[in-house]
Each structure stands twice: as structure tokens, then as C-alpha cells.
Write a structure and sequence with these properties.
alpha/beta; Rossmann fold; seven-stranded parallel sheet; 9 strands; globular; oxidoreductase; Oxidoreductase,short chain dehydrogenase-like protein
């Protein structure tokens, strides 16, 4: 197979860095991006091209970045929207600015970067856009309303985009990872907002302790996770002979969660079907 050209956002650590190393090992070409180039100089040493990219930049600035990226190898085959961070705090404590900031990176960043690349993919009549979602897109979680909301919205946007562009030879893949040992929960990628409302203190203190304690001991291996995503996009390994899915649940924990969610939905429909039916004019 001809080597593919991948552009990945948020490559300074975690899944992003794992993608770069795995792809280079397979002989593909990689454009690694980050807000601060000095944080990914090691990836250049490993053989990747590097490019400064802040997903919260203006559409005009992102278009310029796309031109720079395409000029490196002449094309982009796969875009991976990986950049993101997590906000912890209650729904009531969160300010409009908190919501905007979370959505600017996790949702609008991925949307705007993808929009900037779509003309290139349409011209080539080919391309895959990967969105890194989260298990948080499967159910609401206390103190994670902002993060869950951004990932739920990202899922809907990705699925809708796929329906619009599949006739052009472009496909989307939304990956819903469980708990992987990335840097998402460290101090640089997580915002913890202590509650100002005493009623929430037991909940907030308990949840914050759990998530802070989970940093560095998550069960998932990012390198293995990245390899499975790459296999899925390329149709190799365990994905050989399979059609690219719209959604990939990644990790045994999130697969169990998805199954329970599906079973609970079926039970809900069964119990409330009579109430929700026979309402046509």
C-alpha cells in the first residue's frame, strides 16, 4: 500500500504522540501539530514533519495552516482531531466562559479544523477524518457536564458530516475511548473548579479525588489504542476485510459501558413505548 499522509492535532503527549510513533514505524508520513512547536521537537527528530496549529485559531488562520500542511507532502489523506482537555466542575458552578472554553477546544476546534481540510478532501475525492471522542459521550457524568456535552455534540457533528460527504469519497470515524493512560487527567490538560456551593461539596470532593487518583493508572495502553485506530482506518490487522465503521468503541471498559447503555435503552423503550406511541395527527 502507498504510504499515507496523516495530520494529527495535539501530538505533544498521549494518543497524539502514540499515533505519530506508530505511523512512522509503518512507513507512513506524519505531520504532527501542537500549539507550541518546542513541545514536539522530539517528533521531528523521530522523522515526523511538525507544524504549529492551535485548533482555536480563526478559520482564516486555519486555512493558511492547511495550505502549509498540504505543501509539505502534496496531500493529506487522514486528519486526526485529537486535541482536547477536560473540565471538572458542577453544572451550576460553571460559568458561560467555562462552557465556551471547553467547547472551543473539544468541539469547535475539531469542527473548524475539519472544515478547513474539507475542500482539499473534496478535490481529491478521498479522505478520512478521525474524531477522538470519549466514553463521556455515552452517558452523563457528575462534575463532567462540560466535557460530556462537548463530546456528545462532537459525536452528532461527526455522524452528520459523514452523511454529507460520503458520496465524495470522504469518511468520518468517531472513536470513543475508555480510560487510557494518556496525559488527559494531568494538571496541564485538566481544569478542576472547586465548588462554591456547600451542597455539592461531598460530590465534588469525592469525584475529584477519584479522577485525580486515576491519573497515571488508567488501564488502557495509548500505543495499543493508536495501533487499533490505525488498523481500522487502513483496513489492516483485525480490521482487514471490514468496512470502516462510523464509531469505534476503544477499550474493554467503554465496550462494557456501551453494551449496558444499549440494554438500558431497549428496556426504557419497552417500558415507555405505549406512552410515546400513537401520537400522529
Amino acid at each position: 500500500m502507498t504510504p499515507q499522509v496523516w495530520l494529527i492535532t495535539g501530538t505533544s503527549s498521549g494518543f497524539g504522540a502514540a499515533f505519530v510513533h506508530s505511523l512512522l514505524a509503518r512507513g507512513d508520513k506524519v505531520i504532527a501539530t501542537a500549539r507550541t512547536l518546542s513541545k514536539i521537537s522530539n517528533l521531528k527528530d523521530a522523522g515526523a514533519s511538525i507544524l504549529q496549529l492551535d485548533v482555536t485559531s480563526s478559520p482564516k488562520a486555519l486555512q493558511k495552516t492547511v495550505q502549509e500542511a498540504v505543501a509539505i507532502y502534496g496531500r493529506i489523506d487522514v486528519l486526526v482531531n485529537n486535541a482536547g482537555y477536560s473540565h471538572f466542575g458542577t453544572f451550576e458552578d460553571a460559568t458561560p466562559k467555562d462552557w465556551q472554553s471547553q467547547f472551543d477546544t473539544n468541539l469547535f476546534g475539531a469542527i473548524n479544523v475539519s472544515r478547513a481540510f474539507l475542500p482539499h478532501f473534496r478535490a481529491n475525492k478521498a479522505g478520512v477524518i478521525v474524531f477522538i471522542g470519549s466514553a463521556a459521550a455515552l452517558c452523563g457524568m457528575p462534575t463532567l457536564a462540560l466535557y460530556c456535552g462537548s463530546k456528545w455534540a462532537l459525536t452528532g457533528a461527526a455522524e452528520s458530516l459523514n452523511e454529507e460527504v460520503k458520496s465524495f469519497g470522504i469518511h468520518t470515524l468517531i472513536v470513543q475511548p475508555g480510560f487510557f493512560r494518556t496525559e488527559l487527567l494531568n494538571a496541564n490538560n485538566t481544569t478542576y473548579v472547586e465548588t462554591k456551593i456547600s451542597d455539592y461539596e461531598p460530590l465534588v470532593n469525592g469525584n475529584f479525588e477519584i479522577f485525580r487518583g486515576a491519573n497515571g493508572v488508567q488501564p488502557g495502553d495509548p500505543r495499543k489504542g493508536a495501533e487499533r485506530i490505525i488498523d481500522t482506518v487502513k483496513g489492516e490487522g483485525l480490521a482487514k476485510g471490514k468496512k470502516l465503521p462510523q464509531t469505534l468503541y476503544l477499550g474493554s471498559d467503554v465496550i462494557d459501558q456501551a453494551k449496558k447503555r444499549a440494554e438500558a435503552t431497549l428496556e426504557l423503550l419497552k417500558e415507555w413505548e405505549e406512552i410515546g406511541s400513537n401520537l400522529d395527527v
